[in-house]
Amino acid sequence: MSEFVKNANAACRELRHLFSPTPLQHNRYLSDIFDATIYLKREDLTPVRSYKIRGAFNAMRKSLVRQPSNKLFVCASAGNHAQGVAFACRHFDTRGVIFMPVTTPKQKIDKTKAFGGDAIQVELFGDYFDDTLSAARDYCDANGAVFLAPFDSDDVIEGQASVAVEMLEQIDEAIDMVVLPVGGGGLSAGVVSYMKACSPQSTYRFVEPKGGASLRAALEAGSPVTLNKVDNFVDGAAVATIGARPFAVLKGVDPNHVIAAPEDRICTVIKDMLNVEGIVLEPAGALAIDALHDLADQIKGKNVVCITSGGNFDFERLPDVKERALRFAGLKKYFILSLPQRPGALKDFLNILGPHDDIARFEYLKKSARNFGSVLIGIETRDRDGFREICERMDAQGLVYQDITDNEALSQLLI
Fold first, then answer.
1. What are the residues facing 403 on neighbouring strands?
2. Inter-residue contact 289 to 269 (CB < 8 Å)
3. pLDDT in tens, 10-49
4. pLDDT for position 385
């Protein structure tokens, strides 16, 4: 038995002081859709609703074993890692200072404080995470504290590997494929390292947000690189640079086994899992399920485990998620129309719409000095083919219009 396997097993045993194993659940809904046996490893059901508690706990535990006098721990995080560190600080009766960006939503700050109680203090610093991270490291240097990295740490990777320990204990049949969400890479590195030793027949697919594909970029470059731009919608996995230690494990991955999940498509998974299964997933937690759409031809008849990595979803985001899901499904579009400024023009346009078309947004700016006015209109329909018919009718009436649904710049400004 390798040293890594021993350490991962030990981490898993110690975690039982905090919580029972998260369920490995057969999901009939997804299994029927993809003609496979789909299991969900429900990391959204840990005490802090994400797997991050595992790595934070193990790193703190091992630090205290090596140096019992370590009583001050520091991290920088805007989400799940912060909550995991806070929970671990209270468990070990240590002090924690958690640096979060000033822009962190109040809900996340309050949850972190609730998990840590009197054991932690939260310091808000910087508008961007890089500034927050720098402040946290400076604090460590000045106060002799221990920095707890979110993913680029051997102890954290061992802790995340406890997910795989539980999986293999919970299933009676062979796992053909594990679908792993990737952010900084700690979870993927831990699970792959353990599974290669204990379930060598298993294969893997990796999925990261399209707007934060740091693993693929690193594989193409041969080493970790920093992305020039990151879409932060999938905030639990939108990482500009994959960790050096995780990449040392993952550097042999076939780039064709790394899936870039479109952010809007992820929204359809969040919505479907909530509406159909009653499962609340954050965007990062939906990544592995989303990837099944790209793997449909590869997984038929196979036993597949998707790791749902987190469920810290702020329901204030739900309208945005619904909006993006509808747009991805082709059931909602936005147009800018040039409408004649004459009586009855609006009524003529409304006659274009069918019985299953609904106006979700309408803004009309009438300017008396012009013959035409600009209209911003959002339309929902039951069938994506409905928009083809709407456009044909607008063309027949000679209307001048522009579809701005996929125009990112205009969408951000107007929608």
1. 335
2. yes
3. 999 999 999 999 999 999 999 999 999 999 999 999 999 9
4. 86
Tell me the three state secondary structure of residue 271.
Answer: helix
Q: What is the mean pLDDT of the chain?
A: 93
* Rounded Cα gap, residues 138 and 167, in angstroms: 39
Residue numbers of the domain that contains 385 = 330-414
Report how far residue 299's alpha carbon sits from residue 159's, in angstroms, rounded to the nearest whole number.
28
Q: Which of 41, 52, 111, 333 is catalytic?
A: 52
Tell me: pLDDT of 129 over 90.
no
Q: Is 52 one of the catalytic residues?
A: yes
- How many domains are there within the chain? 3
> Which of 151, 176, 209 corresponds to the end of one domain?
151
- Specify burial of residue 116 (Cβ count, 10 A radius: 0-12, 13-18, 19+): buried
What global pTM score does this model have? 0.92
Residues 410 and 363 in one domain: yes
Cβ density class 9-28: b for 16+ within 10 Å, e for less: bbbbeebeeeeebbebbebe
The model's pLDDT over 317-348, given as tens digits with 9 standing for 90+, comes to 999 999 999 999 999 999 999 888 788 888 88
Q: Is 162 a catalytic residue?
A: no
What does the angle CA 82 – CA 87 – CA 91 come to, to the nearest 5 degrees?
A: 145
Catalytic residue from among 188, 202, 214, 309: 309
